Amino acid sequence: MIFIILIYAFIIIINVPGLLKRKEWRELTAFSILYVIALVLGLMYVLDIPIPSPMKGLQHLIVDILGIEYPQG
Amino acid sequence: MSIEKGKISSQQLLFLIAGFVQGSVLLIDFTVGLTEHQTWMVILAALAITTPVVLSYAVLAKRFPGMNLVQINDMVYGRFLGKVVSVYYIFFFLMTLSFNIRDVGELYTTFLMPDTPFVFLLVVFTATCTYAVTKGIEVLARISHLFVVTGIFILISTFIFLIDQMDFSKFLPFFELPFIRIFQGIHIVSMIPFGETVAFLIIMGCLNNTEHVVKNTFFGLLIGAVSLLIGAARNTAVLGRTQTIWTSPSFQSIRLIDIGTVLTRMDFLIGIGQTILIFLKCSLFFYVLVVAISQLLGLKSYLPLVLPLAAIEVIIAATVYQSPVDHTMITQNAGIIYSTPLVFIIPPLSLLIAKIRGLPKSERGKGT
């Protein structure tokens, strides 16, 4: 947990001061959105909360719903 | 406006493509279980099918010089539909990068460092790729030939060391497997090592001269394909049908090297070769991903997005599959099916539409 907090603090220290100084608001917004996603995923991972796999969803859509699949065996 | 200011030559593109395809040598294992001793045929067939499509990427890049895939999509399909297509590509880049990062973790925990925590390996590897991406495409392009030469050296040297253990009758019988398995094998090989070169539609926008881009793309693809072919032929000649029971036939065959009991346990060579080639592949994919997202959002620079995306990639890589078996099962079906339109349909279609609409000349004409 401490390791995760240190990494995420490091990411802010590296990026945010420069973006604020250069007044790059669009870049700061994009960074913030991705940062929040990364933080949520990181916390879910260390707290052992299951993270849904996009590929499982895709597999369900393609194989189970659309029925597109190579025959097994 | 393009995000990347750096420029690469078309000769550097050749080595980038060759290294990128070589980086998938281990991923051939996805198809070995299906196509067994006929994997070499599958690679040749996939190369023949994919070459015209990959060359269409080069022709597209030549038609839109200085523009990357996101800009081309916007111009060809319009602002709204173009962005939808670009988001589809970004999802593909995001997922494929996470699979490749995961492959490195699986390689190390299975063969080289079994006691090291999986996620630690992912973090260290992704951090290295992140550093490379922050340095820009020029730096990666300048070192790409070293990676390619190292990969070829390892392939050829291991092939020579194993010659005394090779039995070429293990390639027989030909055309024994059911057609559907061969077809699926061709689909996997044409999507994973060859089709993933669609990512170069972002990188080709950085070319300083597009004159020889088609020729260099072809030779890059050919060098990569020959490397895959040598690896597959070596594994089949040494292991025969037993290659399907190993997690990694390449590792298993190289472990059999025994030259006068002095040169043994040469599998570290595969470890080194794979690590540097997957590093090149992942760095290129990561670069493509950040540039595509930044271009889509209209940012001035991709650098602010690199670290948060690296963190996201590590978590996706660690959680997307439960096991290597799960990885293989999903890749052999949904993984290759969802990405087929991105590789085989959209770029040639973009080229056709651009030709019919006379793009980008008419767009330029409008602007002036």
UniProtKB/TrEMBL annotation, chain A:
It comes from the Bacteria. It comes from Acetivibrio mesophilus. The chain crosses the membrane at residues 28-47. This is Uncharacterized protein. Keywords: Membrane, Transmembrane, Transmembrane helix.
Automatic annotation (TrEMBL), chain B:
Pfam families: Spore_permease (PF03845). One of its GO terms (cellular component) is membrane. GO terms for biological process: spore germination. The chain crosses the membrane at residues 12-34, 40-60, 80-101, 116-134, 146-163, 183-204, 216-233, 268-290, 302-323, 335-354. It is a multi-pass membrane protein. Keywords: Germination, Membrane, Transmembrane, Transmembrane helix, Transport. The keyword Iron-sulfur does not apply. It is found in: Membrane. Its main location: membrane. It comes from the Bacteria. Belongs to the amino acid-polyamine-organocation (APC) superfamily. Spore germination protein (SGP) (TC 2.A.3.9) family. This is Spore gernimation protein. The lineage of its organism: Bacteria, Bacillati, Bacillota, Clostridia, Eubacteriales.
